[in-house]
Amino acid sequence: MANQLRQQIDQISREKNINPDVIIAAIEDAILTASKKYYKNNEDLRSRFNEETGQIEVFAVKQIVETVEIDETQISLAEAQKLIPEAEVGQEIEFPKPTDILGRIAAQTAKQVIFQKVREAERDNVFSEYSGRVGEVLNGIIKRQEMGDFVVDLGRAEALLPRKEQSRAETYQPGDRVRVALVKVMKSAKGPQVIVSRTDPALLVKLFEMEVPEIYDGTVQIKGCVREAGERAKVAVVSREKDVDPVGACVGMKGTRVQSIIRELRGEKIDIVEWSEDSITFVEKALSPAKISRVTIVDEEQRIMEVVVEDKQLSLAIGKKGQNVRLAAKLVGWRIDIKSEEEKRQEVEAEMARMQRVVEELRSLPHVGDKITQKLIDAGVAGLDHILQMTDEDICSIEGIGPKTAEKIREAAIEAKTEWDRRDAEEAARYQQEQVEAEAEAAAEDAARVAAEAEAETAPAEAGIEEVSAAAVEPGEGGKPDDER
């Protein structure tokens, strides 16, 4: 019996990968629960596995006291010394309880408790095993589909591949072998839930580690990786040795290494760029294959860059639906504003025109000298609207301008603003009139063109009628028309 029970415990332990002590504790708890349900009293029952006999023994424990108050859990010192002469107050005595009379209901209860304990132990094992492996790439088999999600058999546990973690370029069928990245392990009422992904950048990083020996041994390091799964990815690499080309090592001879990864990811395009400590250089490489004209840091604190490219390179730099610049921005960690040379030229011209307008507005202030006007320009005053928005204190804060001059400047600004508004209104009306005339002229040209095309189409037909008429009246033999012969 001892060997049989112990063998069963060891067998379950191996099959479920559970410590034998956990199974023994589960059996002890099960027998104890069944005993309490059978005896239905207030005794202090305890259970213990006997290694020698291979049986679970149940005891009613009573504490030795001077005066007994509760018969079920206490025993007097005199009664205890009859059983054990050396007994003392405060000690406990165990009284065996028979377990072979528990019955079918108690046995069923014990069975349920054992199953529950074993399941809890399995869940704890799964959680402890996979919670420390987040970020690893695991091999699995698609088992079934549940409402758009897929269940992946990892061997020791089942994992969930949610719809949002699936690549749009891939389809799965039960029985397919897949490599997945372990992204999360959560505890739930039904046990630990292992979440895996086919879109996580960790999957791409691990695939490069498996395919590129230089990455595996640390000669080449992956400094960043971003993906839009199924479409495009960018990987930044750097070499720790001068003689090793990091991009070439990842691409492999004739692209064999990267092509192997592309096949694994069902055709996902992968851009491999060399990482650089210089942010401007890194951005230029991250936007490949587009050629960059120049890069300017707009706001270093907010990490904003402006990139200018040739007009023909603009669509390539932005990429399909903005994908290239979006991935590059994620890779370098900066916000990237891309402009073409023409857009930048127009922007510069607009800024120069704005600055020229500001200078003209300030120089048009009536009864204000050139020195005061220059002081306003040097102080960064941005035109008449700016002056009208400034308080007297703001104007007086400009060096060389006092309260009287400030009041004079404000009055002059009001007068000049009226004149400029009149000029702008006239200019707008003139521009609108020119637009109307241009549209009318264009409409007239279109009408003339349509008429000319219609006349050109009817001309050959009229020419054909004239030829037929001439042939009809031409004299035949004998100098008479055909109808008279």
Strand order of the largest sheet: 5-6-7-9-8
Distance between the termini: 139 Å
Strand content: 15-25%
CATH superfamily of the largest domain: NusA, N-terminal domain
Give the helix/strand class: alpha/beta
The largest sheet, given as strand count, sense and whether it forms a barrel, is:
5 strands, mixed, barrel
- Number of separate structural domains: 5
Q: Tell the overall outline.
A: elongated
Poorly predicted spans: 481-485
CATH topology of the largest domain: N Utilization Substance Protein A, Chain:P, domain 4
Radius of gyration: 45 Å
Percent helix: 40-55%
Based on the coordinates given, report the CATH architecture of the largest domain: 2-Layer Sandwich
Number of helices: 16
**How many beta-strand runs?**
15
Write structural notes for this entry.
The protein is an alpha/beta fold and 485 residues long. The protein contains 16 helices and 15 strands. It has helices spanning 2-16, 20-39, 77-83, 103-131, 201-211, 213-216, 246-251, 256-264, 279-286, 314-318, 323-332, 341-363, 370-378, 384-389, 392-396, 403-472; strands at residues 44-50, 55-65, 74-76, 92-97, 137-146, 149-153, 158-161, 177-186, 193-197, 220-228, 232-239, 269-274, 292-299, 304-309, 335-340. The strands form 4 sheets. The protein has a 5-stranded mixed beta barrel with strand order 5-6-7-9-8. Strand 6 and strand 7 (158-161) form a beta hairpin.
